[in-house]
Amino acid sequence: MTRRIAVSVLSLVVALLVLAVVPLGISITARENDSFREETAARARTVASAAEEHLSDNRSDADAREQIDAAAAHGDCAQVFDAHGALFLATPCHADALPQGALAQVLRTGTQQSAQNGNWLTMAVPVGDTVPPAGALLYSRSTDGLDDQLLAIWGWLGVCALGALGAGVLVAVRLARWVGRPLVELDEVAARLGEGRLDARATITQGPPEVRRLATTFNTMASRTENLMHGHRAVIADVSHQLRTPLTALRLRLDLLAADADADTAQELGGAQDEIARLSRLVDGLLAVARAENSVPRQSAVRLDTVVSDRIAAWEPVAEERGVRLAAQGPSGVSALLTNGDLEQVLDNLFANALEAVPAGGQIVVRTTPDPRQAEVRLSVVDNGPGMDEAARERAFLRFDTGRESGTGLGLAIVHRLVSANGGRAALEPTPGGGLTVHLWFLAAPASSRTERRDRRDRRERPGG
């Protein structure tokens, strides 16, 4: 953001300088050219007036020669012709800048003409006010001095523009840092909070008032979030302790009673033990959902093929016992941004559900499909079991919703919570030919993700790191 602010301000400064300096330079150049042309015309008229006294009034040509000498002293070239086109006065230099017929046209019509030939401006001026005139004057003046003057003017304009640009660079950089640094710090603090560091707070004392107010609001939100998270975790720990302990004690007492009971009583006690086991699974599932909802993930790059292979190996004995084949498909080396341990728990719940539904001889395939365009990775668990109808698929991620008498209806709910907590999404669709396909989308891990860079920075900041 700092760079964008600086570039935007500099672009505005450059645009203003271009709109101000270039038109000003063009205007000054045009004005100096006009002034040079007018001064040249004035000098030519002065020489022509002096020559008119000799050609028209038959006076001495002393004034005309004096003006010719003055023109030569200025470095100009002057040639005076009589009415017949004969040259009778001239400076040492002789410039031929006008077309051959220009002199004849001036002598015939008395019209002033001018032309630019290289670095010389030449004017043909009639001598006298009569038509045809008493003579003609060719007056040439070098534009070297004008060019040097214009170059100096453009140089000063360039120096002023560079000075203004330098001041604009200084102002843009300071403004960008003043605005951008607090936002960068706030972004880093927000990232640390998102990674699970609930004590992260912003200490911003500089920058715009709006950014400082935003930092104060963020700190208030972070404090409330920390209090809520600690409260939820305390409740989860208390519930876990208060529920599991009496259930374990009750199961032990039923085991003791079943050991000395007759067949009918033992059968009833066995049913009670099954219900206690189901209640234990339900409590464990509720606690897992609560942890998934209240956890703050700290994500890192996780190799999907490695985790999938490990979980397939762990569930392979159960699958072989039930006559179901487990397989994995997809490229190797694909990584996603996930909290360590979450993908294992997601796959365990999906495998458990699929193995309960897929009959002997069926298969469960895990497919990995990267999508570079969306910067995502899709993980699909495909089975060829009985599947679900559309209504069941719409309710599948809700708690306690199950289409079977057994189970708690929390497996897919846990999957959905864990995937959502990691910034992904989940969807169900029927498998072509029969069965259920669970699609999971996760953020793809870049080659050097921001999380990895923060991890390296944290290691450097640790003592002895």
Protein model, in words:
With 465 residues, this protein is α+β, with helices and mostly antiparallel strands. The chain has 3 domains: 2-149, 2-Layer Sandwich (Beta-Lactamase), CATH 3.30.450; 195-296, Orthogonal Bundle (Helix Hairpins), CATH 1.10.287; 297-451, Histidine kinase-like ATPase, C-terminal domain (Heat Shock Protein 90, 2-Layer Sandwich). Helices cover 59% and strands 17% of the residues. It is built from 11 helices and 12 strands. Strands 2-1-5-4-3 form a 5-stranded antiparallel beta sheet, sandwiched between helices. A hairpin with a 4-residue loop joins strand 1 and strand 2 (87-90). The longest helix is centred in the N-terminal third of the chain and has 54 residues, at 2-55. The chain is rod-shaped. The two termini are 31 Å apart. Mean pLDDT is 82; it is low at 449-453.
Which descriptors would you attach to this protein?
465 residues; 11 helices; alpha+beta; single chain; 5-stranded mixed β-sheet; Helix Hairpins
